[in-house]
Amino acid sequence: MLNSLTLLFGIAGCTDSPAGPIETEALPDLPPVVDAAGEVGPIREVREFTLVLSGELRGEIEPCGCPTLPFGGFERRHRLLAELEQSPMPTFQIDAGEAFKKGLVHQDGRDLPRAELIRELLVDGGLDAFVPGPTDYDVLGTSGLAKLPNVVSATWTTTEDEPLFPASVVLEEDGIRLGVIGLSAVHEGLKQRPPVEAAREALASLPDDLDLVLVVSNLDDRQNREIAVNVDGYAVLVTTSGSSHEGPRHEGDVLVIEPPPRGRYLTVASMWLGTDADRMVETDAELGRTLSGLVELREVIALRTSREEPISEQIARLEAQVLRLRESAAGRNITHIDDRGLGSALDGESTASKRLDAFREKQLDAAVDRVASTSESDGPRYGTGASCVSCHTRQVANWGFTAHAKAAQSLRPRGEHQNPECVGCHSTGFGEPGGFADVSEGTMRTWGNVQCEACHGPLAGHPRDGRVEPQVINESTCVGCHDEANSPNFDYATYIRQVTCPSDEP
Ligand code: HEC
Ligand code: HEC
Ligand code: HEC
Ligand code: HEC
User: Fold this and answer.
1) How far is Cα 281 from Cα 401, in angstroms, rounded to an integer?
2) Which of 79, 292, 429, 484 is deepest in the core (most CB within 10 A)?
3) Residues of CATH 3.60.21.10 domain(s) within the chain?
4) If you measure from the C-alpha of residue 63 to the centroid of ligand 3, how many angstroms do you get, rounded to a whole number?
């Protein structure tokens, strides 16, 4: 908040060194007063607070290796959260679910340690409420999820119609009271109440002295629209990202917010509520930001006044404008919503570092165990690409020109060539039986890059052992690595043309 104020009014360091001079040259014009065309509600004392919203983290704990905008990760998330916590405004942190399971490919027992890490990191980061989605239930189950604070779901019940979690929760901080209702998407192992009915019932059971009521959902696009249009009595609908990510928008009287997926952003909504809780919350970038920044401006002015320091004419004029602005915003609920990218500017040690380091070590240990496995049921083991050269020279030569042949090299400029989170997709056989687990330079020379067996399957013993056969290649061979985050433009038909090996047939 201090940052935005400094930016807005150019009052550098006003809280750090209150005795310093107030710079007034750079004061910008305030935005025009609110357009009075909209409906104004009863004027109530203004309540200000910050909502921090996220959803569909999908197991991401580090900045993605995405070709563009490598945002994200818990180190940066915790640093941004710590920054937000410094604001005098109460802050509420809510997640819309689908947080714990990485990728689309099921990884049996490998999902749980990651899920437990994420749960601890969310708790450490100060999460206030969580709405579980189907993949969350798959990995953690009821008891695992219950270790999170305020898990709410009005839709999920057992087959005996017992609710799994409370339908709603009231969050309270510094006198601000929020009602949060959770709507979880269908899970085939659970019974799901019809969302519209469940939402209405949960809303009716909330106390009527709340400052804001939010419905938080990981339902699909169609069901979310139904909740927005057909259910009354709440102001903000937070959803996981729909089929196409859209910015904040209004549907009916409801403000719909879709935080972007995969933990690359945190959605920060500065709320400025000047009328009844069930009135529409308007988004007005300029105004919302200004109104929030003004709190601190007034603190500075109050400080000057109390010390009988002169207030410059310019600040006095600004103060008058502030009053006018506040008057015209009276009787309205306004927000400024900002998707804050978790970029490299937030890099550094954080409260997440220790847990992440410990996890990486455990991950490597687990990979070592799997690699050493000698169980028959593991199937064939890896032979590495070097072993194919003698017989399949044409294919090896051709492969050498594909992007796959330099996949390990691409990690170097980012300094991530020994990070297990990246190596998994930029090498072959990592953590697989008969593959490799140690990410040292020497080992990576053997196993680095997306080699023959990443597509054709482990082939040690081929062609001598007739039981070892190359696997059939189709789209599912690729999407474990070419997922939405790391390969946003993946299109099987286009991509397969670039990597199909030449035939030996003349
Ligand atoms: C889930 C698999 C996966 C993980 C994990 C992964 N990557 Fe990638 N990465 C890919 C794929 C697939 C591509 C190719 C994307 C494309 O061009 O469609 C890629 C491309 C890249 C590129 C661009 C290469 C170039 O020259 O164009 C870089 C750099 C990169 N990844 C770095 C990283 C880093 C750093 C990490 C770890 C933080 C990482 N990746 C983790 C799958 C992954
Ligand atoms: C000693 C020679 C030899 C080595 C080494 C060898 N292959 Fe083969 N490979 C063959 C022969 C011969 C065939 C055809 C007969 C068969 O299918 O068993 C074949 C067939 C294949 C096929 C199927 C081709 C088709 O017509 O469908 C693939 C894919 C393949 N090999 C990949 C590999 C890979 C990957 C490696 C390295 C891990 C490898 N091979 C190592 C000799 C070899
Ligand atoms: C083990 C993980 C992995 C698998 C499996 C995999 N890829 Fe890749 N692929 C990568 C990585 C990593 C890159 C980026 C390489 C680089 O440039 O550093 C990549 C790059 C590519 C590129 C080049 C993209 C570009 O922007 O130039 C194509 C095309 C491609 N892959 C197609 C495929 C297809 C088709 C399949 C399935 C048959 C497949 N890949 C399977 C990891 C994988
Ligand atoms: C990105 C995936 C991918 C990688 C990596 C890859 N291949 Fe292939 N390869 C294919 C595809 C696709 C075909 C076409 C046949 C099929 O669909 O199985 C093919 C076909 C082959 C064939 C059969 C050729 C024929 O006569 O029809 C051989 C042999 C082969 N590859 C060997 C290799 C070797 C050796 C390497 C490593 C240097 C390698 N492949 C790496 C995807 C891959």
Assistant:
1) 55
2) 292
3) 32-104+127-346
4) 19
